[in-house]
Design brief:
Number of domains of chain A: 4
Structural class of chain A: alpha+beta
Oligomer: homodimer
CATH class of the largest domain in chain A: Alpha Beta
Helix content of chain A: 10-25%
Strand content of chain A: 25-35%
Largest sheet of chain A: 7 strands, mixed
CATH topology of the largest domain in chain A: Molybdenum Cofactor Biosythetic Enzyme, Chain A
Number of helices of chain A: 7
Chain lengths: 437, 437
């Protein structure tokens, strides 16, 4: 008799699986910070020194003693003697005394004696006590015996970044478990941390099974199909920050499948068996998972579509997932169950997941208690030029119909629309959330 | 005198830049389809054969002639003689005649004579004309002289995918300019297309300038800072699908900068100069861009914050961008102007950009006409277990304050909140759109 499935809600199923993992992975590797995009920090990163290390001007202007500018206005300027120019990338040789100033560029190091910078826009230069003009920081020194009129008062600290204003020495600047993005790479470089310890990539083994399945590069006989799941899932693992290891195609035979799964389990943090969708191969996959160690099968049957026959299991703290052979089911369930496994193995602090708000074009029925994921095309409601990095805009979500196992129905989709378990459907015109593929 | 900036709206500035590019890149490269994630197809991909290539069962059950099941019901079943089992991965040796059927697994090839498959659930087996039970497709053949009771009628085509139902031979399955995701890789593999022609990665040259800037690995003298922009932008280019080439740090000298920029321009599709933020270095960058060819500087000054002093230019169809030295400005403007350049060079059909809807925690003032991008932290409003691939949920967007040039203010941010040019601010409690970093 085939097993009858007791369907678990997907959130419960996922939580059960995640609870059985030994995570995060304890191994770390040291890599070049410049190449760390997408990796996850293996421990807290502390600032070895403050940033900035010296008080820096944030504007073009004149380094001053703030007290000398108090009360300054257009009608009653403060007059300061210009004693020199601050070089870039080096400390100034000069010291600002009372009623003195020095020209300074954005990023320049504040000279001794000064405690603020007045923006160029609020100054004028007096040439031989007569001609006044606003000039650049560069050309000011061509004027003989220049005096600077200050037209606005500044407070101490104005126009500069103080030492440690970005980060202080010893501060945790990037916590353990952070997914490294452009900004983190920048922060590491700013602190001179040109290498970084990151969590080893989770290794995910991929086993395809099915007597009808052949490698994509091989000639196809009648009744045969090419292995799709090993490649879609491998790409998904890469995208999720893991490393995929392909164990090839195993025939529909318990002992062959068990041998290969056992090997993969010793080499990987998670093993995916993409089996046939028939009840018999599904049951064989469950039996193999049971045979590999405790606790074995945790979930056999999930109340989601596609993906009802998905099997979730664990052995010795490692994930074992049996995905349907149907390439759409396998990939959608990869998103739903495999990506969270990789995230947990990495110990990655979850970042908000980007979605798209869209207006559903038609009614979609669903079954109460079941979570549905529909492939949808997103069609811009307006033709506003949104530009590259500019905001999202509003879309129509148009469900793609067709039998659930057509891989090109997913290739045509921009995302997956979720119908939550407590809904019996969604109505045309409703604003829905779409997870981008 | 320093140049006074005439500020262009960011959308207009971007459109002007993009209009001057020779795009998409004409060169393509042939790569392994398994490694094509994120690459862009260089031409339309046609199906070399239909998918599926043979009629496949989508269920476990019995291959039948649909006409034999017409009118079948629980009370008046149709009786069919079971003549064998369809093997997986090979055509059946048998032919289904009138009143005959054969057991078939999901994915099996429909035998000659059959035109539909009845699901196992709607059948029963008769053992020696007496005992009835529902059994599996596997165990049915252990019964002697079995007859199958069919309890539901099927129409021709039920329970199968027909030849070409996914794609037909010669159909464009992946259009030119498609960003390859997991599903496209799956589609290529399903068709046996193990290699794919993709657009060469756009080469983006990165030049840092500034007498105060040193390589991150070098010891830091007083007044010096480490190069951050070459590394944040390099990571951004990688993420956007380009290839970054670093030309190192050039001193603040027109001819040195021009020589390096000229070299980069001959080797790259786009060149980024990250210069100092002071008016003098900014003006020098503009002069260098002007000297490299027509049309030179297109935009000097953009009505956006951060990024007002950004310079957009082009020479010989290649992009030339001068970014402020301030690492936050440089990276945010990289998102706004460099990513769209890479997208256009790739000829990539834009996919909807994922954003997060969030509720603003405080009032944010802005200047009418200016587009502001605020770093924000996203804080979940609810603690619902959203799971890995599950929908986004609702967040609070909490702006991060601090001077605009602190790289760690961006490292602390989950995304950038846009205040559109036509707004003078946003109110606490408003639902806003956040672009994830």
């Amino acid at each position: 008799m085939p097993e009858f499935l007791t369907l678990l809600p997907p959130d419960e199923a996922r939580a059960l699986l995640l609870a059985h993992l030994t995570a995060p992975i304890a191994d770390s590797v040291t890599i070049d910070s410049a190449l760390a995009l997408g990796r996850v920090t293996a421990h807290d990163i502390l600032a070895p020194h403050p940033l900035p290390e010296f008080p820096r001007s944030t504007v073009d202007g004149f380094a001053v003693r703030a007290a000398d500018t108090f009360g300054a206005s257009d009608s009653l300027p403060a007059y300061l003697t210009l004693i020199g120019e601050i070089p870039m990338g080096a400390p100034a040789a000069l010291t600002i005394g009372p009623a003195q100033c020095a020209s300074i560029h954005t990023g320049g190091m504040l000279p001794v004696g000064a405690d603020a910078v007045v923006m160029l826009e609020y100054t004028q230069i007096i040439n031989h006590g007569e001609h006044k003009e606003q000039i650049s920081v560069d050309s000011v020194h061509s004027v003989a015996n220049p005096e600077i009129e200050i037209l606005r008062p500044v407070a101490a600290g104005d126009g500069i970044i103080a030492i440690g204003e970005d980060v202080t020495a010893g501060q945790i600047v990037i916590p353990c478990g952070t997914i490294i993005r452009e900004a983190e790479i920048g922060g590491l470089m700013a602190l001179g941390l040109t290498s970084v310890d990151v969590v080893r990539k989770p290794r995910v083994g991929l086993i395809s099974s099915g007597d009808e399945v052949v490698e994509p590069g091989h000639p196809l006989g009648a009744g045969q199909v090419r292995d799709v799941n090993a490649y879609t899932l491998s790409a998904l693992i890469t995208r999720g920050g893991g490393e995929s290891i392909r164990y090839g195609i195993v025939r529909d035979d318990f002992s062959a499948l068990q041998t290969m799964a056992q090997k993969a389990l010793t080499e990987c943090d998670a093993v995916i068996i993409s089996a046939g969708s028939s009840a018999s191969t599904r049951d064989m996959t469950a039996d193999v998972i049971r045979s590999l160690g405790a606790p074995g099968v945790l979930v056999h049957g999930i109340n989601t579509r596609p993906g009802k026959p998905t099997i979730l299991g664990a052995a010795n703290g490692r994930a074992l997932i049996g995905l349907p052979g149907n390439p759409v089911s396998a990939l959608v369930n990869g998103y739903l169950f495999l990506l969270p496994v990789i995230e947990k193995l990495l110990g990655a602090s979850p970042r908000p997941r980007a979605t798209i708000q869209a207006r559903l074009t038609i009614n979609l029925a669903s079954q109460a208690g079941r979570e549905d994921w529909w492939p949808v095309k997103l069609i811009p409601q307006s033709s506003l030029p949104l530009g590259g990095g500019a905001g999202g805009g509003v879309y129509f979500a148009e469900p793609i119909f067709g039998k659930s196992n057509l891989i090109f129905s997913l290739a045509a989709a921009d995302g997956l629309l979720r119908i939550p378990p407590d809904a019996t459907g969604l109505s045309a015109g409703e604003v829905v959330e779409v997870m981008l593929l």
